[in-house]
Amino acid sequence: MTNNATPYAIELRDISKRFGAVQANKDICLQVEAGTIHGIIGENGAGKSTLMSIIYGFYEADTGYIEVDSKRVDIRTSQDAIDSGIGMVHQHFMLVENFTVLENVVLGAEGGALLKQGMDAARVELQRLAQEYSLDIDVDAIVEELPVGLQQRVEILKALYRGARILILDEPTGVLTPQEADHLFRILKALKEQGVTVLLITHKLREILASTDNVSVMRQGEMVAHRETAKTDKEELAELMVGKKVRLQVSKEVAAPTETVLSAKNLCFVDGQGVERLKNVSLDLRAGEIVGIAGVSGNGQSELLNVLSGITPMTSGEIQFGDTLINAKAPKNAAQMRDLKMAHVPEDRHKMGLVTGFEAYEAAVLGYHNSDAYNGKVLMNRKVMVDECSRRMAGWDVRPPNPHLKTANFSGGNQQKIVIAREVEQNPDVLLIGQPTRGVDIGAIENIHEQIVKLCVAGKAILLVSVELDEIMALSDRIIVMFDGAIVGELDIKDADERTLGLMMANAYNEELSEQALQEGESA
Amino acid sequence: MSQPKVPVWVNVALIPFINIMLAFLVSGLVILAIGEDPIEAAGYLIYGAFGYDEGIGYTLYYATNFIFTGLAVSVAFKAGLFNIGGEGQAYIGGLGVGLVCLALDKTMPFYVIAPLAIIGAGVFGAAWAYIPAYLQARRGSHIVITTIMFNFIASSLMVYLIVNWLKEDGRMAPNSRTFEESAWLPYLHDFFLPLGIDIGSSPLNFAFVIALVCCVLVWGLIWHTRWGYQLRTLGTSATAASYAGIDTAKVTIWVMLISGGLAGFVGINEIMGVNHSLLLNFTAGYGFAGIAVSLMGRNHPIGIVLAAILFGALYQGGAELAFELPNITPEIVVVIQGLVILFSGALEHMFKDRIEGFFIRRAVA
Amino acid sequence: ADIKPAVVYDQAGKFDKSFNEGVYNGIKRYTADTSIQVREFEPKNEAQVEQGLRRLAKRGYSPIVAVGFSMTSAVEKVAKDFPNIHFSIIDGVIDLPNVQSIVFKEQEGSFLVGALAAMKSTTHTVGFVGGMDIPLIRRFGCGYEQGAKYITADATVIQNMTGSTGAAFNDPTKGSELAKSQFSQGADVVFAAAGGTGIGVYQAAKDSGKLAIGVDSNQNHIQPGTMLTSMVKRVDQAAYNAYEAAQTGTWKPGFMVLGLAEGGVDWALDDNNANLITDDMKAKMKDISAKIVSGDIKVHDYMSDNTCNY
Amino acid sequence: MFETLILMLDATLRVSTPLILAALAGLYAERSGIVDIGLEGKILGSAFAAAAGAAVYGSAWIGLCFGILASVGLAMIHGFACITHRGDHIVSGVAINTVVAGLTVTLGLDWFSMGGQTPALSGDARFTDITLPFADALASVPVIGQIYSNLLSGHNILVYLAFAMVPVTYWVIYKTRFGLRLRAVGENPQAVDTAGISVAFIRYRALIICGILCGIAGAYLSTAHNAGFLKDMSAGKGYMALAALIFGKWRPVPVLLACLLFGFLDAVAVRLQGVELPGIGEVPVQAIEVLPYVLTVLLLAGFIGKAVGPKAVGRPYVKERE
Ligand SMILES: Nc1ncnc2c1ncn2[C@@H]1O[C@H](COP(=O)(O)OP(=O)(O)OP(=O)(O)O)[C@@H](O)[C@H]1O
Ligand SMILES: Nc1ncnc2c1ncn2[C@@H]1O[C@H](COP(=O)(O)OP(=O)(O)OP(=O)(O)O)[C@@H](O)[C@H]1O
Ligand SMILES: [Mg+2]
Ligand SMILES: [Mg+2]
């Protein structure tokens, strides 16, 4: 290693990358000081993952180049990146699920044509790493049987085993509880003390402020600002991220809920692999209130939405919806639930809410395609569908207001409007909403939030699922927290704060309470 | 971000044209390699397929089979299913036709037999598709593999039935007895001759009309009914389908029933229209060719008719070619067929991406 | 007279090493003798059989020789539509004024080779591998069995059919497995009446050091030293004669049954198998031949009553 | 009775040899994530090339080389379509099978003027049976000796090769670096890619191995089991190998057992033709013929165990959506 002519571990020069019509990265320059934790923030789709994947050699940049330790390196494949001492923990884990931890770690670094020696050596090395960074793990466990937090640990070990000096983490906390996240940041700190340079991608301002040395901001594919973390604050970063001043609070009256319209009792759901995904979930929805479901993603929220909306049949339990009783013996599918006036804005509009190959007017009747309004005796009535779609597009300001455009060709916010418009305009009694603003730009977020509040005022019962705590706290009247398929707590909005919710999401709230009680008892 | 669009004619005409030309080019090289003149060969081929009335009749007769199997493949494909079992379904469909004809030809008039035979073809073909469909829908077994297996099972079953039960006593060839004329589908030349139009004598029969009717019905079904809506939804996104309350298992099963029924209609053309007896191997690869036809025809009935005529022309012209140039076997047509599947199916992205990229870049610039 | 002769082979193709190839050899010979080209056509599917016949008839080819029973219905249809064209069908029977039906007394030839097999066998067990299970092939088997028992009354004749579809005439793999299975049951001479499947039978016989008997054409040259003899069915001659008769204006419709007496069937003796056949055997064969021709030996025709009771 | 059994098993070995080779070929392809419905075409193509090569050069070994070359060439077309151009694996396989079915006959007719067949092979142009040491001497020893000299001895080299390929495959798949990567790439190609390994390269190598094995299978058909090429001589063996692959759940030893079972059924079917079984009567051969397919369908339907293939199989690996 040359003596530090510059203190930069990695430098990017004018990196650009285009996917078809999307300019994901545009003339990006970035300098990361060696031995620091450097944060990169940006909204969904800002191009963060793309940029990191370019550094890691997963994608090749169209233009620009990269310097590592002030030497220009030619990174074409991930192997090149690994050779340059770069490691990456991907947003979506890159693990072979039915392999053991050990096999996953040695994959690509086997150390010889035969497996045995390499595996034995890796076993020893992993033990060392585990001790050094407190990254304990059973190396013979099958990856798919490990909880997410441990799977992430495997990813980190993979990088370290390859001798990474520069570690990229792409939204590592998306799947973690705040407490697990804290543990991760402690590990990152330890790594930093060993001289490892860390690139941390997130769109959570809190994490950036708590753990980074420097921060860079991306917006729509461009690098718009660099700041020293100590010299900036939440408001400034938020503004840089979205390009204008944001109002983080929605104006909302205190709710005046009336009668209960839906009441679920002891819902259980066991998936195809025999894993219990929902455990005795009971909740009530009342007209005129918004109930928020908080939780780290993957703790049963999706399953709850699917069971309530009839997409997947419940294993046991019952739902009283208006006059109708639904249970495992008398199930109702999604179409029947719609007939009972339940609407559902799904979490994933690409996979569920829309059919990307359809024209807008076709997508605008998805789920209601059997309704008499759209059908003649045999054939569907295209004219009615198109007219109605045009009308809604005008009402909801969908742009471009062209009912014949393929849904894939609308932007995320407009797609979401098409979905929400479809569901809301059926005048449902209950509205289930999953991740209403995921991947939607900030302007559209405000709009969508306003619409949700309006519905609530109009007396609908709304169940809101979101992984964005801010969103939950801004909209809900009541917050239910889910962990590992069960409801672990419920708070009224006026009692809710981030810390409490965070503890509940990690299922650590009750323990902490009892600990407190213990301490108080001792001190008394 | 609305994406710049590629002109429609690029996808509908230009790309299929390039693919088919490539297939022809490679076939031309093969013909050259065996010492014949590709241009001369093409001449015979085109003359044989379109040069005279009878040739056209044969072309359309073959096309009838391709329309049925092409539609069969594409209906399933629209719902995201790869029905590779058209061959077996056509075979069993023919059994349905044959059984109806054998049972009724001595006692019933044509107008009773014909609709029953058509139903027989559809029901038997559909029934053969039902089992793989059921297994896919309810037990998650991969339909591609099961339909392949069912092709083999169909072929063994037919041998067993024809040889042991349906073969006429004293007959050498494993055929059933020839049906009475009351169970023959009229030839189109017989139909036109009284009208003073001589279209030459060929096996072209009323099944061709049925095939065209099927095209219209399939078109209406897919694009203008709620069932079509459901199957297209399922074909694009299974999760969206279950979100929309569509019973995916049910849709899978009935789409395969329609697909199998359409394939089964090959039996109408072959058994009732031409052979007038139940025999072995009358499907002669039409089921597999349906894959090529639906790929070429871009899964649209109009495209399928055009592609079917193209393949009919290849079959008929290929026979003519082999007749004129004995050095060339009719198998050259099988080579072309395979190359069409290769270029317009397996290698579709090779040119499509580039060409579309070209037009997108032009649109962006 | 100037004739435009043609032939339509069956789907096994003209190089099946036996039946079609026999016709092909006859045609080669005819062309060599008369320098008249014969138009050949090899159809690939059912529809093409009829189409090819029609096309030839339309262009005025006559006589058209159709090879094989599988062509019967197609010839019947086309012959009706072209009453001025002459058709000769081999192995098929059609009753039309412009069709000549040529059939053979396969049972007589099979009797001969059966007798020879029994003379050669040391185990008193001989085998028969048929092609497709149809009465025609059973007729071979029945004659063979009769011939073998004529020599050795307690001979065991193991009979297997390859299959029940046309594919059975072109499945050497199965032929070889069947032959091996018969060898394992003690057979030491195997007669294959199975078209292309026979190739596998002969190969198996050679690999196991046993003897085999060919069929239709003289197949002695295929595995010299292994081929005991061949039951020749003079389809070559039938085709040759049909053309020749047309040329001289003596072609006539109706049935022609070619047996041993007419030279339609025989057993083949040539250089390839000369040293497998002793003079004693030769003499015996000659005697049997004479007896069949004279009617002293009555060979049962399976197809007369669909049984093999003689 | 015992002798019949030995002979039946002997036939089983001969009949299952091409199945074993082809099924192992499919195993490499599918473990790497490539569905290979084109096994049939590769076997047929190689059978033709091998017979043609052997006929022209008079050597079975040269024939084998030709067969392997042809089969690997076809595998590379499959790779080009499925790996390089992200084509549909099934469609590509169907295309290859169709092209080969036509091309072998077309070229065969042109080269040998024998209606698409190759000349009959004899002598060195065929793989001949090998008698294992002491086989003759031991033949008279009851049971063990019979098994040794009648069942194990007296096959051609390709049969032994096929059986040897089973432990070799096991070793390659589970004990080597290549095997680890191969299995990984069939489960999660992204994981392999981000580990710095080229997905395409592994898949191409898997297909080359697949091509070689299918090449041997084809050469076996035309230059060892038979003596020459016949049109359509693969007669569905590729599909049956595919069935065996699924039946053996993509694992070498169970796949071997599946092939032996299917081969045994075939050997039984040949011998049961027209035979009256006591108590059952005559079993139609067709019923035995379809058993492998029926069994595989039942397995796929989960009635007898469960067949779960490699997770990423059949899905083109797309890194960048354009
Ligand atoms: N493989 C790809 N093919 C095509 N477009 C892509 C691909 N990957 C990303 N994009 C597009 O590039 C843009 C940037 O995406 P990227 O994943 O880098 O964003 P991000 O900042 O990581 O967002 P998120 O917070 O959602 O992870 C988006 O518009 C995305 O749709
Ligand atoms: N009835 C006949 N009429 C005319 N020529 C005949 C007749 N019988 C035999 N020949 C001639 O005698 C020759 C020798 O006959 P032979 O039986 O040896 O034929 P071959 O060439 O060996 O045919 P194959 O290969 O079919 O056995 C033939 O070439 C043929 O020209
Ligand atoms: Mg990202
Ligand atoms: Mg001779």
UniProtKB/TrEMBL annotation, chain A:
<keyword id="KW-1003">Cell membrane</keyword>
<dbReference type="InterPro" id="IPR027417">
    <property type="entry name" value="P-loop_NTPase"/>
</dbReference>
<dbReference type="InterPro" id="IPR003439">
    <property type="entry name" value="ABC_transporter-like_ATP-bd"/>
</dbReference>
<dbReference type="GO" id="GO:0005886">
    <property type="term" value="C:plasma membrane"/>
</dbReference>
<keyword id="KW-0813">Transport</keyword>
<keyword id="KW-1278">Translocase</keyword>
<dbReference type="Pfam" id="PF00005">
    <property type="entry name" value="ABC_tran"/>
</dbReference>
<dbReference type="GO" id="GO:0016887">
    <property type="term" value="F:ATP hydrolysis activity"/>
</dbReference>
<keyword id="KW-0472">Membrane</keyword>
<dbReference type="InterPro" id="IPR050107">
    <property type="entry name" value="ABC_carbohydrate_import_ATPase"/>
</dbReference>
<dbReference type="GO" id="GO:0005524">
    <property type="term" value="F:ATP binding"/>
</dbReference>
<protein>
    <submittedName>
        <fullName>ABC transporter ATP-binding protein</fullName>
    </submittedName>
</protein>
<feature type="domain" description="ABC transporter">
    <location>
        <begin position="262"/>
        <end position="509"/>
    </location>
</feature>
<keyword id="KW-0067">ATP-binding</keyword>
<keyword id="KW-0547">Nucleotide-binding</keyword>
TrEMBL record, chain B:
<feature type="transmembrane region" description="Helical">
    <location>
        <begin position="143"/>
        <end position="163"/>
    </location>
</feature>
<feature type="transmembrane region" description="Helical">
    <location>
        <begin position="251"/>
        <end position="272"/>
    </location>
</feature>
<feature type="transmembrane region" description="Helical">
    <location>
        <begin position="278"/>
        <end position="295"/>
    </location>
</feature>
<feature type="transmembrane region" description="Helical">
    <location>
        <begin position="204"/>
        <end position="223"/>
    </location>
</feature>
<dbReference type="GO" id="GO:0022857">
    <property type="term" value="F:transmembrane transporter activity"/>
</dbReference>
<feature type="transmembrane region" description="Helical">
    <location>
        <begin position="12"/>
        <end position="35"/>
    </location>
</feature>
<dbReference type="Pfam" id="PF02653">
    <property type="entry name" value="BPD_transp_2"/>
</dbReference>
<feature type="transmembrane region" description="Helical">
    <location>
        <begin position="55"/>
        <end position="77"/>
    </location>
</feature>
<dbReference type="InterPro" id="IPR001851">
    <property type="entry name" value="ABC_transp_permease"/>
</dbReference>
<feature type="transmembrane region" description="Helical">
    <location>
        <begin position="302"/>
        <end position="322"/>
    </location>
</feature>
<feature type="transmembrane region" description="Helical">
    <location>
        <begin position="328"/>
        <end position="347"/>
    </location>
</feature>
<feature type="transmembrane region" description="Helical">
    <location>
        <begin position="89"/>
        <end position="105"/>
    </location>
</feature>
<keyword id="KW-0472">Membrane</keyword>
<protein>
    <submittedName>
        <fullName>ABC transporter permease</fullName>
    </submittedName>
</protein>
<dbReference type="GO" id="GO:0005886">
    <property type="term" value="C:plasma membrane"/>
</dbReference>
Automatic annotation (TrEMBL), chain D:
<dbReference type="InterPro" id="IPR001851">
    <property type="entry name" value="ABC_transp_permease"/>
</dbReference>
<keyword id="KW-0812">Transmembrane</keyword>
<dbReference type="Pfam" id="PF02653">
    <property type="entry name" value="BPD_transp_2"/>
</dbReference>
<protein>
    <submittedName>
        <fullName>ABC transporter permease</fullName>
    </submittedName>
</protein>
<dbReference type="GO" id="GO:0022857">
    <property type="term" value="F:transmembrane transporter activity"/>
</dbReference>
<feature type="transmembrane region" description="Helical">
    <location>
        <begin position="49"/>
        <end position="77"/>
    </location>
</feature>
<keyword id="KW-1133">Transmembrane helix</keyword>
<keyword id="KW-1003">Cell membrane</keyword>
<feature type="transmembrane region" description="Helical">
    <location>
        <begin position="157"/>
        <end position="174"/>
    </location>
</feature>
<feature type="transmembrane region" description="Helical">
    <location>
        <begin position="12"/>
        <end position="29"/>
    </location>
</feature>
<feature type="transmembrane region" description="Helical">
    <location>
        <begin position="89"/>
        <end position="109"/>
    </location>
</feature>
<dbReference type="GO" id="GO:0005886">
    <property type="term" value="C:plasma membrane"/>
</dbReference>
<feature type="transmembrane region" description="Helical">
    <location>
        <begin position="253"/>
        <end position="270"/>
    </location>
</feature>
<keyword id="KW-0472">Membrane</keyword>
<feature type="transmembrane region" description="Helical">
    <location>
        <begin position="204"/>
        <end position="222"/>
    </location>
</feature>
